[in-house]
Amino acid sequence: MKYVLFICTPVDGEELSPAEIAEDPRFASYIDEVRSRDIVKGGARLRPHTDATTVRVQGDEVLLSDGPFIESKEYVAGIDIIEVADLDEAISLASRHPAALAGGSVEVRPVWE
Amino acid sequence: MTELDAEEVEEAVAAAFREEWGQVVATLIRVTGDWDLAEECAQDAFAQALDRWRRDGIPRRPGAWLTTTARHRALDVLRREAVGAAKLREVAVLARDEPPYESEDDSGDSGVHDDRLRLIFTCCHPALPIEARVALTLRTLAGLTTPEIARAFLVPEATMAQRLVRAKKKIRNAGIPYRVPPAHLLPERTTGVLGVIYLLFNEGYAATSGADLVRRNLCAEAVRLARVLARLMPDEPEALGLLALLLLHDARRDTRVDAAGELVTLEDQDRTAWNHAEADEGEALLRTALRRGRPGPYQIQAAIAACHTTAATAEETDWADIAALYGELLRFVPSAVVRLNRAVAVGVADGPEAGLALLAELEQEGELAGYHLLPATRADLLRRSGRTKEAAEAYERALELVENDAERRFLERRLAECRSA
Questions:
Q1: How far apart are CA B387 and CA B156, in angstroms?
Q2: Which stretches within B129-217 are classed as H helix?
Q3: B403, pLDDT greater than 90
Q4: Is B173 on the interface with A (CB under 8 A)?
Q5: What's the number of domains chain B is made of?
Q6: Interchain contact, B127 vs A87, CB within 8 Å
Q7: A108 to chain B: which residues are within 8 Å by CB?
Q8: Which of A16, B171, B265, B337 is close enough to A20 for a disulfide, judged by CB 3.0 to 4.6 Å?
């Protein structure tokens, strides 16, 4: 089954760049595991929520707002697309993600296939 | 062969329904991977039994007969729907695997039981909302109908139907595995399963004698499920502990309210009217569980309940023991409600002042602010120490917060006693 892991981190948390993540020892075991088992089928580290622009269309007017589509205490800092046997395996992986261990959360969503 | 009496067959089918429904559904889910089809085929098998058992006699192993019949039905349906050849082969092979009905060999049972355990763990998966876990367990394992479950939980039928549909959809779409969790997940998931059964029991326990019979029957369903779980997980002392706890509570169920619907406190309950067979069984199960040397919250709560059922009179209750057990329970469940209960026990064992001191700590922390039993407990301890004026004030405070009518009338009676003292 394919799942998308939404890696959510607190708004005031640290914002590591992809390069910093690659060298951060806290991420090492997660990265090693997903690489060795070829679980991750895609993903992205996203720029902070302050860099987001949200687009809405009303009639023929394009409305822009600065910031994410919903203001909350956590924002989506990245996504991982994974392929595993079932939800338990996805949960187990998510629970070892450094963001989950450091006060953030990981939303596990099955891909509509 | 002469035809059997219709009534006799109906009774046999009804008994088989209670005993075997969950197992038939569980096996069919494993075989077909389709929850709706599994329920449909199980229903069909029970309908066929009414007819065929009358003609052919009641099979020696009704469960095996029903499962095989349901499997054949599933095979028919899948064939008609022309599903993939691979799936058909799988179901056909599994249909052949079924031991013959008349087999006296019970070793085939282990597979059957594993299916039920799979079903319990899947229904109680933590990714499902708690209401859905409860409803799904009642539907698939206990065989209650959707209208019955809706009535038991006091929600409209359409709401309950939707809840069940959503839960089954989530199991399929989110990839919730149909299995007994592996060892590293088992302890936490077992706690979840026990929690669902306990919640089910409490729903029924909270229903008073005036309530809908289906609602009151939730206790019986919970006891039955706890029994199945205890049998399937013989090495899990908490499963035994939960069954013991439910039996010990259930034994006192009918004496908690008098004929007029008024609450009767533990000390005033008619102990001769307790269900002693249930209490004895609960106590025996508790002893078996405790011998494993791995205590847990359900075993401790059962031990507390047993302190009451083993006391011949209210005066003989060992409150020091109960207070110590609540202290033990706090190690597993460090909640304010457990501390409140401990304060009650200490108040009886060591005197009201000791209990009031513990209550004062709780009141100061404010976690139970708004919970009527906090001032009600305070009132009771004050009443016991003869401070009736202060007790009356605490009863007034409790009355501002109480929601249940029977409890309200009870508190009002106590308040009147304090005022006239």
A1: 48
A2: 130-136, 146-152, 157-173, 186-206, 213-216
A3: no
A4: yes
A5: 1
A6: yes
A7: 174
A8: A16
